[in-house]
Structures are given as structure tokens and as C-alpha cells.
Amino acid sequence: MHIAVWGILGSFLLGLIVSIIRHYRILVLAQVATAYIELSRNTPLLIQLFFLYFGLPRIGIVLSSEVCATLGLVFLGGSYMAESFRSGLEAISQTQQEIGLAIGLTPLQVFYYVVLPQATAVALPSFSANVIFLIKETSVFSAVALADLMYVAKDLIGLYYETDIALAMLVVAYLIMLLPISLVFSWIERRLRHAGFGNPSTLSRK
């Protein structure tokens, strides 16, 4: 589970950086960011893990299973988080940013105090879906010798030949992990919407 936590945190950070590069169309880097997103989103996590775990040692770079799993999750999740952040950034009207500059804020302060909080609120439902998606993707970690839930379930099936029970336990385990996360995100979203914060229709009129 700690790999999923670090992977998701890394995905948020990478996604924010990539979304800023694309949103503000930073020369050269914007094209690199676009290529990264297309590569990441159009290749399975399993293939990415194989490249990190089996491919890199061929050029002298040997990484542990945990590092490979974390990097793979960050690489995959960063692209999804980047698109979520970008949708939030594009929901913020240019007028708000111009007002921030007019009252004496620096561009960095405008981004940090005006743009980023609202963009995050707008993108919250997408963040929730991405977090759940990434946690479910950890089911392929057994491919690089990590004992994830799927690995344990296959072991139980091999030991006791109780396939139905093992799979049912697997479903319950994922529900126990994912349902609270979904409920927490839904609660936060309702609170923000009730406060009128992060509503795209409101932001576009300001």
C-alpha cells in the first residue's frame, strides 16, 4: 500500500508540473510533455513495469521491485493527473488572473493563491477517479515480484484450491480500500460545491 501512496503523491506532483508546462505553452517542453502524455496513456502499466524491471538492467541500470513499481505508477499516473490539472486550469478565467496582477500580485502569487486552489477544486472529481484507477492498477505489481493483493489471492488459490473464496476475498479487500476513498472525495466535493468554490460555471463568469 505504501507504494501506491508514494506513486499517487508522485503522480500529483508530476501531473502538476506537466499541466503547467502544457497550459502555459512553454516552448519545447510543451511538445515533450504532450509526447509523454501520449506515450504514458497509450501503453499498459504492465509493459512499463517490464521495461523498468527487465529492460533497464540491460543497459546497466538495476532497480528494486519497489522502485520499479513506484516509478511505473508515477509515470502512468502523472499523465492522467496532468490532464485533470489542465482541465482545472483552463476553467479559470483570464479576468481573475488579470485582476490579481492589477492589485500587485506577482504572476507566481496569482498562480499560487488564485489559480491553483480553484483549479484543484474543479478537477477534484477527476482526481478521485484517477486515484482509484491507480490503486487498482497495483494489481499488476506481482509481475515484478511484489506481493500485492492479486499475488496473495493466487497463492491462496494454489494452496487451498478455493478459487471462489479467494476471489471473493480479493473483491472485498479492494472494496475496503477504495470505497472509503471514494466517499471521502465525494464528501470534499460536496463541501466545496456547497461553498460555491470550484464551480466551473461560476468561475467562467468572474
TrEMBL record:
Coiled coil spans: none
Gene Ontology terms for molecular function: transmembrane transporter activity
Domain ABC transmembrane type-1: 1-182
Compartments, record wording: Cell membrane
Superkingdom: Bacteria
Family: Belongs to the binding-protein-dependent transport system permease family. HisMQ subfamily.
Name of the protein described by the UniProt record: Amino acid ABC transporter, permease protein
